[in-house]
Design goal:
Shape: globular
Order of helices and strands: HHEEHEEEHEEEHEHE
Number of strands: 10
CATH architecture: 3-Layer(aba) Sandwich
Number of domains: 1
Amino acid sequence: MRKIKHHHVFRTLMIGMFINVLSPLGFAIESAKEHEIKAAYLFNLGSYISWPEALFANESDNFTICIVGQHPALVATLRFIALKRKINGHSSVVQTLERIEEADVCQIVFIPRDQEMNMTDINTWHQKKPVLLVSDMDRFIRLGGMIEFYMLNNRVRLAMDPESISDSGLKPSSQLMRVAQLRSR
């Protein structure tokens, strides 16, 4: 059992380490599970966004990725990666949230597709805060989101609204802009 778990963990880390090479092509790694790929993307997104300096007043401040709702496989994968990886020199932490109002400590908030009915509340809470909103729900960008995971030919791809990201005081890197499909609301 322990060997299997280490293999799973190693595979997850390898996906995260190679995402920069593979992301322009999307992911079609049959042995990787969708939640592992999304976890790798979420961690790497933190490095491809410029964050306001005030968010990290101290070097000891954590980079926090939050998940709204209960998604045990994604959370477990993110927490494992968080033990091994830093984002922009900051230790990474993963939190689960019951409600979006709890997300004030987060830099990235992943809003799963089952939260679509809460998008009005999410947009009201967000109000241009320097928080990156990411989801796998259909039409997420049209609903007010910033980065949307979508499937194309069995590959997880990224779409993003650079204007929405910039309006929140964040700046996407040129590398991220080349990899993602650019959309607007």
